[in-house]
Amino acid sequence: MKKSIVIFYFLLLYSVVQLFSWGTLVVKLQPSRMAMVMGEGSVFLFLLGIGAYFLHRSIKKEDKLREQQQNFLLSVTHELKSPLAAIKLSLQTIVKRDLDKARQTSLLSNSLKDIDRLDDLVENMLLATKIENRSYSFPKEEFDFSEMVNKITDRLQIHSCGCEQVINPKIQPGIKITGDPFTLSSVVTNLVENAVKYSGPCAEVSVELKNKDGHPFLTVSDKGPGIPDAEKMLIFDKFYRVGDENVRKSKGTGLGLFIVKEVLQKHDADISVRDNVPQGAIFEITFS
To answer: DSSP assignment, residue 13?
Structure first.
């Protein structure tokens, strides 16, 4: 980033110096052309300034995207390495030690949780790629959205905090929508997983689905640190993650909310985020 900015400003300064040098030389040789030189010079400086502004903004945007991609690669590496290491350790323990059936079942259950985590990560990466290059068609059908949300909350409940009830679902039965079940399940999964992840150890997460003014209305509430107002719209950008990358403790790739936004746009649904009380965030989705 620094190198490209330095080169950019050096070329800009060189252009301005050359402009004044040639302008001064022309005026000395032909004083009568001063008005013309000043007029054309002013137009040139104006156009140069506009070009410099947009070029500078483009360079900054490209550098920021490159930094986000590097952070994404680091996050994905960590997200892949951690469950793989846990699965390997569990399987090695089963192979090398004479364990009772209950202990083996516990280790295998933990391994299955890590496999599900890997599966969700790979699905997010593949879906984000297909959405971005427009190769996914979003096949739509009518299905029971209430049943889908119930299944997802039940599955994530097991993975969240052992036997303790963390996710508090309030699902109105029989709510049906027309959409793509695969991508909408990814929407619900990403929102609930984020809520669990940012709420802290075993903190309660609320998931509510109901009909509001004749439209399906989904709410996911957490008790995490919340999202600053300045970042509420940025969180749906690809690779964007709240806070400083250098001190962030939570895991993630920055793809989840990007997928949520893109999928909901394809379903003519609206999503908004607001502050929870006393702390945390509330994501609200309204289907048309």
So the answer is: H
Q: Which residue type occupies 14?
A: Y
Distance CA(23)–CA(152), nearest Å, equals 71
Neighbouring C-alpha atoms within 13 Å toward the C-beta of 58: 7
pTM as predicted: 0.68
Please give the Cα distance from 87 to 115 (Å, whole number). Answer: 8
**Euclidean distance between the first and the last CA atom of the chain, given in angstroms as a whole number:** 44
What band does 74 get if pLDDT is binned at 50, 70 and 90?
low
Domain map (residue ranges) of the chain: 2-65, 74-132, 141-286
Q: Beta strand pairing status for 215-221 and 281-286?
A: antiparallel
Q: What is the mean pLDDT of the chain?
A: 81
Mean pLDDT lowest for which of 97-111, 121-135, 192-206, 247-261? 247-261
Task: Judge whether residue 193 has pLDDT over 60.
Answer: yes
For 128, residues 6+ apart whose C-beta sits below 8 A from its C-beta are: 238, 255, 258, 259
Q: Assign domain 141-286 one CATH number from 3.20.20.105, 3.30.565.10, 2.60.40.10, 3.30.1490.20.
A: 3.30.565.10
Q: Are 131 and 180 in contact, with CB atoms under 8 Å apart? A: no
